[in-house]
Automatic annotation (TrEMBL):
Belongs to the class-I aminoacyl-tRNA synthetase family. Catalyzes the attachment of tryptophan to tRNA(Trp). The keyword Flavoprotein does not apply. One of its GO terms (biological process) is tryptophanyl-tRNA aminoacylation. PANTHER family: TRYPTOPHAN--TRNA LIGASE, MITOCHONDRIAL. Coiled coil: none annotated. GO terms for cellular component: cytosol. It is found in: Cytoplasm. This is Tryptophan--tRNA ligase. L-tryptophan binds at residue 136. One of its GO terms (molecular function) is ATP binding. ATP binds at residues 10-12, 18-19, 148-150, 186. It catalyses: tRNA(Trp) + L-tryptophan + ATP = L-tryptophyl-tRNA(Trp) + AMP + diphosphate + H(+).
Amino acid sequence: MKETIVSGIRASGRLHIGNYLGALKQFVDLQNAGDHNCYFFIADLHALTTPFEPKELSQNTLEVAADYLAAGIDPDKATFFLQSQVMEHVELGWIFNCLTSLGELQRMTQFKDKSKQHRETINGGLLTYPTLMAADILLYKPTAVPVGDDQTQHVELTRDLARKFNNRFGQTFPEPKTFLRKPLRIMSLSDPMKKMSKTGDDPSAPLGAGALMLDDPPEEILRKLKKALTATDAKEKSPGVANLFLLLDHFGTKDQIKQFSEQQKKNTIKYSELKETLAHQIADHFGKFRTKKTQLLNNPTQIKNTLVTGAAKAQKIASQTLSEVKQKIGLLRSP
């Protein structure tokens, strides 16, 4: 039997190259391997837990959907949908709220961190984010969840909830494992001590100055890479240089990797040449992606129809799971 995998991404706008290498590329590979039932969704309800503007939320959702589709997510091979269009997520999330202690939720690291970042806008959704995430996952009874290391605590809570529910109401959910491949963290070009982020590293800098967005045009990729920090003492790679070599490992040819690695060892490397090479390789790699994304965004109805179709597929499974849960916990169903 095929294993089931579930993963989602917040509706937070354009994706950058770190999102692609760390998650999206893996999703496409899993989908194409054909040995998993894949459910990929856009977590637009989770996006409500931090400050947002309605028009931006709508546009960000379309942007993320276009990125997924342009990068190779195939609705015929994977179930791709919008979280808010499958309301079973919310219903099961509420049930899990009632099975989770306040102390468990307050101990979540992300709640602590985001509470500090958004002191004036801390809301109940931020606190119960992990129980909704558990519902997102367990509705489809997966065996594994591809997540970054910053989400492993939430998956552990999901496993705990599955175990708690099973012990109290009878075997219902599997305890999904965290599906982690080799850790991959692309750092900011402008501050290589921080993870690449579309929100920017310096409040005074332009938004996303340290991030290579997937749809950046070639000239913008070159401009950003030229400004990438590379300070080094020549004895070893600085964080900025290591970051550029990590990108080279993923987008450069074998000859290019060998050439610049040897130059690095001999201390004859010209970082301007490395940056220009990287810019060309990355721009070329995402050439078809940029074209397809533009076509998709020019026809938003196509994107919306794809999401609606995916939601209908997801709901067939989600409704079965929720019906089973309601029966086991004693909620009356329609005759």
